[in-house]
Specification:
- The longest helix has 23 residues.
- Helices cover 29% and strands 24% of the residues.
- Helix 3 packs across helix 13.
- The strands form three sheets. The chain has a 15-stranded mixed beta sheet that branches. A two-stranded antiparallel ribbon has the order 6-7.
- The radius of gyration is 27 Å and the shape is elongated.
- It is of the alpha/beta class.
- The protein folds into two domains: 297 residues, Aminopeptidase, CATH 3.40.630; 178 residues, Glucose Oxidase, domain 1 (3-Layer(bba) Sandwich).
Length: 511
C-alpha cells in the first residue's frame, strides 16, 4: 500500500510539474498588434464618449469588457457578477447664510461657503478664536496655546513672509486645504477664512462626484469672507487685517462676537463599476495574481471627446488580450497554478476610485494576492527620453518596493523572453512627477501587495487632451510590452512561493 501511494502521489504531481515547465511563448504570441488595435478602436472610439466616471460611455465600455471576459469563459469576479459596483456621491448646496451680530451677509459679495466638505448644519457662536494664518508645520504652530475645540476659528489666507512650506501643492500646510486639515485636527467646529477677491462670481451649487460619502470624522464648516466681514467680527483688529498681519498682527485670542453659520445640502448617489474576470488556478487556486488597468478616462466636455487611447485604453485592451492568452493556455492544459484576476477599474482619473474601493472591499484576500501588475499607458513613446532605443523600452515602476524578490524576477523574465530596455527613471524617490503614486497599483501597495507598474512616460502634448487617439498608438511596441507583462504574470502564477513582503512601505508626507 505504501509503494502504491508513493507512485500515485508521483503521478498526481506530474500536471503541476508540466505547468511549471510549460513554455509560455506560444501563448504570449497570441497577444498581437492587430488584436490590440481592434479592441482599442472600440474602447477609445466615439461611442464610448471618453469613458468618464460615471457616464453612459463608461457603462458601454464596461459592457464590452464584460462581454470579452464572458466569451473566454472567465469566472465572474464578484460572486455571480463581473461588475463590482461602488457608490459615488454628489452634493448640491441648497442654502448658505452667515449672520454677524444679527446682521445678515450677502453670499458672493461678503462670503462664500466651501462646498467640498460642508454638511447641513446651523451653528451659533458667541465668540471666535483668531489663529493667525492657521498654519501648523514643524516648529510653526499658529494654534499654540489656543484651545479651539468645538469653537469657531478665524484665520487668514496666505502665509507670513519667509515661511517655507515642507510640502508643496494642495497638501501644503499653508494652502486652504492644509489649513482646513489643521483646523479639523485641532478640533474646530467651524472655520472662517479671510481672503481677497470679493465680491466673487456665483459660487458653484453642485460639487463633483466623490467616493467619500461617509467620513471617519466630520470636518469643520468652512466659509471664506471678505476683510470687511473680518472687521465686523474682530472690530478694529480686523480692519485691513491682511495688510496689518505683515507689520502689526493682532494677538491670537478669543474675540466676542455673535455669529450664525448655516449650510444646507442635498446628496444624490450614482454608481460606477470595476469589471473583474477570474481564471481559476490549479493547486494554488486560493492565491492570486492581479493584472489591472483603468478603463475610464476624462469623458466628454460639451461636444469634445477625450478619447483616452493611450491613457488608459492601451492598458485596458492589453488586459483583454492577456486574459485571452491565459484562457488559451488553460484550454491547452497549461493553465496557471495560482488564480489570475483580470480587473479593469474605473474612476482612476478622479482619484484612483475603483482600486481604492476594491482594496477597502476586497473580493479576494489581499494577504493571498502575491502581486499586482498594473498597466497604465503602454502604447506610445516618451519624446523626452534621450537615452536608449525609443522603440524598445518600458518604464518599470515599483518593482524595488515591498518585495526584495520582485526586481530580480522581473529582470530575469525580461532577459529570457522580451529583452526590452527596462527604464527605472520613475522609481527615483525624487521623481517630480510622483508617478509611483498616480495609478491604481498604489492602492494595492498601500495594502502591502507587491506591485509592478508598466508605463510609457507619455506626458507630452497629447496627455489628457482630445488628441490622445488610437491612430497614434505604436501597436507593435504595445504588443511587446503587453507580452512582457504576460510573461511576468506567468512566472508569478506558477512559482512555488508567494513573493516575500520584506520591504516596509514608505509613504511620503502628503499621502
Amino acid at each position: 500500500m505504501k509503494k502504491i501511494f508513493v507512485v500515485a502521489l508521483f503521478f498526481s504531481y506530474l500536471p503541476v510539474m508540466a505547468q511549471k515547465k510549460a513554455n509560455p511563448s506560444s501563448f504570449a504570441k497570441t497577444i498581437t498588434a492587430d488584436d490590440l488595435k481592434k479592441h482599442l478602436y472600440i474602447i477609445a472610439g466615439k461611442e464610448m464618449e471618453g469613458r468618464g466616471t460615471p457616464s453612459p460611455g463608461l457603462d458601454r465600455a464596461a459592457d464590452y469588457i464584460e462581454s470579452h471576459f464572458r466569451s473566454l469563459g472567465l469566472i465572474p469576479g464578484n460572486k455571480e457578477s463581473y461588475r463590482l459596483p461602488y457608490p459615488l456621491y454628489k452634493d448640491s448646496m441648497t442654502a448658505a447664510a452667515i449672520k454677524v451680530n444679527e446682521k445678515s451677509l450677502e453670499i458672493n459679495r461678503d462670503f462664500q461657503p466651501a462646498g467640498l466638505y460642508n454638511y447641513t448644519a446651523d451653528m451659533r457662536f458667541s465668540e471666535i478664536v483668531f489663529a493667525g494664518y492657521g498654519i501648523v508645520d514643524g516648529e510653526v504652530d499658529d494654534y499654540k496655546d489656543l484651545d479651539v475645540t468645538g469653537k469657531a476659528v478665524l484665520i487668514l489666507d496666505g502665509a507670513p513672509a519667509g515661511y517655507k512650506s515642507s510640502v508643496s501643492g494642495i497638501r501644503s500646510p499653508s494652502s486652504s486645504f492644509g489649513k482646513y486639515n489643521n483646523a479639523q485636527k485641532k478640533g474646530a467646529a467651524a472655520l472662517i477664512l479671510v481672503s481677497t477677491g470679493f465680491p466673487r462670481k456665483l459660487a458653484a451649487m453642485t460639487s463633483q462626484y466623490s467616493l467619500n460619502g461617509y467620513q471617519k470624522t466630520m470636518y469643520p464648516l468652512m466659509f471664506s469672507v471678505s476683510e470687511e466681514v473680518a472687521e465686523s467680527i474682530l472690530g478694529d483688529d480686523g480692519k485691513n487685517i491682511l495688510t496689518k498681519m505683515k507689520t502689526s498682527p493682532p494677538v491670537k485670542k478669543l474675540y466676542p462676537s455673535d455669529i450664525n453659520l448655516s449650510y444646507s445640502r442635498s446628496t444624490t448617489t450614482d454608481y460606477a463599476s470595476d469589471v473583474i474576470g477570474v481564471l481559476e488556478g490549479s493547486d494554488l487556486k486560493d492565491e492570486y495574481v492581479f493584472i489591472t488597468s483603468h478603463y475610464d478616462h476624462l469623458g466628454k466636455r460639451d461636444t469634445v471627446i477625450y478619447y483616452g487611447a493611450d491613457d488608459d485604453g492601451s492598458g485596458t485592451v492589453s488586459v483583454l488580450e492577456m486574459a485571452e492568452a491565459f484562457a488559451k493556455a488553460k484550454a491547452a492544459g497549461k493553465g496557471p497554478r495560482r488564480s489570475i484576476v483580470f480587473m479593469t477599474v474605473s474612476g482612476e482619473e478622479k482619484g484612483l476610485w475603483g482600486s481604492a474601493y476594491y482594496t477597502k472591499h476586497p473580493v479576494f484576500p489581499l494577504d493571498k494576492t502575491t502581486a499586482d501588475l498594473n498597466i497604465d499607458m503602454i502604447g506610445r513613446s516618451d519624446s523626452s527620453r534621450k537615452q536608449g532605443d525609443s522603440l524598445n523600452y518600458v518604464y518599470v515602476v515599483g518593482d524595488d518596493k515591498i518585495s526584495s524578490e520582485l526586481k530580480t524576477i522581473s529582470e530575469s523574465i525580461n532577459k529570457k523572453y522580451s529583452r526590452l530596455e527596462l527604464d527605472y527613471k520613475f522609481n527615483d524617490p525624487k521623481d517630480p512627477h510622483r508617478i509611483y503614486f498616480r495609478s491604481d497599483h498604489y492602492n494595492f501597495a498601500k495594502s502591502g501587495v507587491p506591485i509592478i507598474f508598466y508605463y510609457d512616460g507619455m506626458l507630452g502634448a497629447d496627455y489628457h487632451k482630445p488628441s490622445d487617439t488610437p491612430e497614434k498608438i505604436n501597436y507593435q511596441l504595445m504588443s511587446k510590452r503587453a507580452q512582457l507583462v504576460f510573461y511576468t504574470a506567468w512566472e508569478m502564477a506558477n512559482r512555488d512561493q508567494m513573493l516575500k513582503r520584506d520591504i516596509p512601505l514608505e509613504t511620503p508626507r502628503g499621502f
